[in-house]
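> call design_seq(struct)
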């Protein structure tokens, strides 16, 4: 998706965003992400996982780093009752 100046921006169709705790933000693609420093990255995939924990080595894309550290930072999850 090319960069488009704000004055010529045409709203695209709605995108579905799925929140997962703990985990990434899933966004139906293609997407364009503007980072804090102003750089823009894009993906043409049908669905992308955006990192929310900032542990990813390929930030802003999720590399599942949250799985390795989930136990260290997150409160314990309740276990389902036995059946």
């Amino acid at each position: 998706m090319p960069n488009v100046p704000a004055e010529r921006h045409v709203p695209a169709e709605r995108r579905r965003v799925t929140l997962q705790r703990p985990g990434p933000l899933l966004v139906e693609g293609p997407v364009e992400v503007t980072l804090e420093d102003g750089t823009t990255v894009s993906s043409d995939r049908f669905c992308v996982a955006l990192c929310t924990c900032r542990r990813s080595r390929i930030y802003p894309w999720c590399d599942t780093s949250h799985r390795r550290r989930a136990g260290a930072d997150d409160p314990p999850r309740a276990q389902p009752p036995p059946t």
